[in-house]
Amino acid sequence: MDPLTLVLLVFGVACAFCWVMSLITKDTSWVDRLWSIVPAVYVWIFAAAGIASGEDAGRLLLMAILVTAWAARLTFNFARRGGYTGMEDYRWAILRGRMKPWQFQLFNLFFIVLYQNALLVLITLPALVAFQNPAPLNGWDIAFGALFLAFLVGEFLADQQQWDFHQAKKRAGGRLEPGFVTSGLFRVSRHPNYFFEQAQWWAFYALGATAAVAAGHGFWGGAVNASIVGAVLLTVLFIGSTIFTESISASKYPAYAEYRRTTSMLIPWPPKRRRERVRAA
User: Fold this and answer.
1) Distance between CA atoms of 149 and 271, rounded to whole angstroms?
2) Is the peptide bond before 178 cis (omega within 30 degrees of 0)?
3) 181-194: per-residue pLDDT in tens?
4) 120-131 residues labelled b (16+ CB within 10 A) or e (exposed)
5) Structure confidence at residue 281 (pLDDT)
6) Could you tell me which residues come within 8 angstroms of residue 203 by beta carbon, excluding any fewer than 6 positions away?
């Protein structure tokens, strides 16, 4: 069976499962529980097809190993936060309260279930590009693979710093000023974990683009190819999600407005107050 066809079959099963379970349990976080798992399944489908074809599958193996490492880290972080215990994402509960029941059910089906599951397919399509353009590994693969791992470590550190803060907040009885983490990586980005998450998938896209270029494609169709849609849409999703999340944080914590004013939303960057002091000096 063609690997893309198999991926689409798994996608269909995942959509049906998430939608049916959301109706049965009244919990719309089922896509979240698959988020760290199905991309690895998709990439390994492409990698297995590459190995079975008898062509050079070194790049596909590298891509599959990197996504497996991403999946393991994200699954671990999601699990320790109680993601597999039936806890629904608090943002969906807030959004449900702002919509009529039928509106939220349409949102659930078309955005939460179909769009997000489709996005999980799209971000893995650079592996399809690598499958269609078998070529030996080169220095660019090593560079982009190392970059992927660096971003993976960055996300691990950001999630750990956030976890440590919330554990300390819990020990303090639920109150720890200013109410949200502002130290470590969160000093230079309000959402460093979101930044590193997106950056990993841009590095993954670059690996697929490297395969296309190595196979003889030029800038258009090679370095820039159709699989870029996944990374672009993931970035759009994260920006929209971040804006929504921050509207909730700003309503809960008075100090968040100042934090938002002085600290970069995503890209790690020196805080504005520090930059102003440097200019003044």
Assistant:
1) 26
2) yes
3) 999 999 999 999 99
4) bbbbbbbbbbbb
5) 44
6) 144, 145, 147, 148, 151
